[in-house]
């Protein structure tokens, strides 16, 4: 498998390629279906399977700071795409110049000339080129002109609604992390470096926490969650608070994870936090005793939730048994 940041980094597929293209934010089940169909079609026709995505996300270039946080940052997205083992993954550098290309200019430059594309697989609502003018009908016409076939896949429907990045973003923002699992094929997770916090968890409360340095990604709604924490290749159960710790009058948002029966020094290490289920909203307590009593109760609730087989997480970026899995 080749992971590249430009067409120039790869050798043009000798026998041609089968390409799918998109932002793939979240690499959800709809995206997984696209990639798997691309890999199968490529294999059946003796072509190279290619996944094309963009970095940064086009909205970051076109809308800038007004964009919502994304489900997956680029590194995590590329790792999730790689689980399906396409021959080539390309994360094109998206620029305003690229955004100004017509559908035909983009198709010819990057896909036909750059990748010798013979087949294309797109989602039910995909469009490319300036102003998203390159819809399915346009792409079919360009296929006849430039010698490639095109397949459009129907959406994935789960719980009577289309699986989409915006739906997942809404669920995570509402704290419905358990429901997101069905759409992603995995639990929602964030990653980050463990940094020094206010030193209150262990010293004042008796519940030491790993404080995560926040990046520009989507975090669940403020509150307390049952979690699984991946550190040094092992997955450990725990409970986390996302919010501003109103009992202490904080202003900044923080993510603090208490890992059960764990006392290792992990400052400076990168960890993954898998959000299993929201336990309650964040609230302000009258004193430390009330807060400690509530944390004890939250811990017991988290242990109960994490005792269910459905809450299990394997080490590494992966798709759970509810996902499509590698192609």
Describe what you observe in this structure:
With 327 residues, the chain is of the alpha/beta class. The protein has helices spanning 29-44, 58-62, 74-82, 96-99, 103-115, 136-146, 165-173, 177-184, 288-306; strands at residues 2-4, 17-21, 48-55, 88-93, 117-122, 149-152, 157-158, 161-162, 188-195, 210-212, 223-231, 234-243, 254-259, 270-280. The chain has 2 domains: 2-155, 3-Layer(aba) Sandwich (Rossmann fold); 161-311, Riboflavin kinase-like (Elongation Factor Tu (Ef-tu), domain 3, Beta Barrel). Helix content is 29%, strand content 25%. The strands form 3 sheets. It has a 6-stranded parallel beta sheet, with helices on both faces. A 6-stranded antiparallel barrel has the order 9-10-13-12-11-14. Strands 7-8 form a two-stranded antiparallel sheet. Mean pLDDT is 89; it is low at 320-324.
Summarize the structure.
This protein is an alpha/beta fold. Helices cover 29% and strands 25% of the residues.
Helices and strands in order:
Elements: E1 2-4, E2 17-21, H1 29-44, E3 48-55, H2 58-62, H3 74-82, E4 88-93, H4 96-99, H5 103-115, E5 117-122, H6 136-146, E6 149-152, E7 157-158, E8 161-162, H7 165-173, H8 177-184, E9 188-195, E10 210-212, E11 223-231, E12 234-243, E13 254-259, E14 270-280, H9 288-306
Parallel strand pairs: 1-4, 2-3, 2-5, 3-4, 5-6
Antiparallel strand pairs: 7-8, 9-10, 9-14, 10-13, 11-12, 11-14, 12-13
Helix pairs in contact: 5-6
């Amino acid at each position: 498998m080749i992971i590249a940041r430009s067409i120039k980094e790869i050798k043009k597929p000798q026998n041609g390629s089968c390409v799918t293209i998109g932002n793939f934010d979240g690499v959800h089940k709809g995206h997984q279906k696209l990639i798997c169909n691309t890999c199968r079609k490529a294999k059946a026709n003796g072509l190279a399977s290619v996944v094309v995505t963009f970095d940064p996300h086009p909205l970051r270039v076109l809308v800038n700071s007004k964009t919502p946080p994304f489900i997956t940052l680029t590194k995590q997205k590329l790792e999730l795409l790689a689980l399906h083992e396409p021959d080539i993954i390309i994360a094109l550098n998206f620029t305003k110049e690229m955004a100004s290309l017509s559908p035909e200019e983009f198709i010819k430059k990057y896909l036909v000339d750059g990748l010798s594309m013979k087949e294309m697989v797109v989602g039910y609502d995909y469009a490319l080129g300036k102003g998203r003018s390159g819809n399915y009908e346009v792409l079919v016409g360009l296929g006849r002109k430039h010698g490639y076939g095109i397949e459009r896949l129907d959406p994935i429907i789960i719980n009577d609604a289309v699986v989409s990045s915006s739906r997942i973003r809404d669920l995570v923002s509402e704290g419905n992390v358990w429901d997101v699992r069905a759409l992603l094929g995995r639990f929602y997770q964030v990653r980050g470096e463990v940094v020094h916090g206010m030193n209150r968890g262990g010293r004042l409360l008796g519940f030491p926490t790993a404080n995560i340095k926040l990046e520009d990604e989507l975090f669940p709604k403020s509150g307390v969650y049952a979690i699984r924490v991946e550190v040094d290749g092992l997955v450990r159960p725990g409970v986390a608070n996302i919010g501003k710790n109103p009992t202490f009058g904080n202003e900044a948002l923080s993510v603090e994870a208490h890992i059960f029966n764990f006392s290792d020094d992990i400052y400076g290490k990168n960890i993954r936090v898998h959000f299993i289920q929201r336990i309650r909203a964040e609230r302000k307590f009258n004193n430390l005793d009330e807060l400690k009593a509530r944390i004890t109760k939250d811990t017991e609730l988290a242990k109960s939730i994490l005792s269910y087989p459905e809450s299990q997480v394997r080490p590494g970026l992966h798709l759970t048994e509810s996902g499509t899995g590698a192609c």
